[in-house]
């Protein structure tokens, strides 16, 4: 059985381990500087970190933060929550863990008075795109790029 909960600081190392394992499995092992950056983001005061736990171990993680105008460079947008990452350990993918993480976030943000969730994902990341659609997100029509060969697409969900 998989349960989700808001993470405690003692969960951060396990959350980073899930993130690393998932990135490595898809052929993108992170460099040490990126690992340090993710660890720091998990510890930020306004970070919402949710973990999925099964058999006493963290199997999935989600990081969200207040949404900001101008694609994260501007002031906070009231009611907007930006999902920075959702990762599931490779051995637990396809079991609904990502959906459970998103459901917990949705409930948590709505209880705080949030009105909208947003996320950007790779235009070629079919697994993530299916996850967001199944969770009720819809493409916003916005596309961008993380360089010349990495198009990304925005999905949103009104709460």
Automatic annotation (TrEMBL):
Keywords assigned: Acyltransferase, Transferase
One MF annotation (Gene Ontology) recorded for this entry: acyltransferase activity, transferring groups other than amino-acyl groups
Chain ranges of the N-acetyltransferase domain: 2-158
InterPro entries linked: Acyl_CoA_acyltransferase, Bact_Acetyltransf, GNAT_dom
PANTHER family hit by this protein: AMINOALKYLPHOSPHONATE N-ACETYLTRANSFERASE-RELATED, AMINOALKYLPHOSPHONATE N-ACETYLTRANSFERASE-RELATED-RELATED
Protein name: N-acetyltransferase domain-containing protein
Upper classification of the organism: Bacteria, Bacillati, Actinomycetota, Actinomycetes, Streptosporangiales
